[in-house]
Amino acid sequence: AEKQGNNFKKKNKFYGRLKLMGTIMDAAKYLIYLSYNLKVRSLTPLKLQKILYLSNGWSYVWDDRELFLEEFEAWKYGPVNLEVYQYFKKYGSDEIPEWEGIRDFF
Prior knowledge:
mainly alpha
């Protein structure tokens, strides 16, 4: 199992960047940037919350530590970080625009 984890780290070009995240807002804005950079473009506030939650969980699996310190609450449609919710709620169920993303924050 350890060998597979190391293999993933070597092959995944985004692994190192996600590993060094600062705040949950940094992570959110970087994920928005990636969604446009990779031509995916369908990142809504709800999807963003779920991706952030899963990213933090996988960080425990891969690195035995959390990706960011901010916490999530259990809401009806899944985990929610209040800071991210308050900032992006203006988009409702619409796609978050490209200009909300950031490329570099290290």
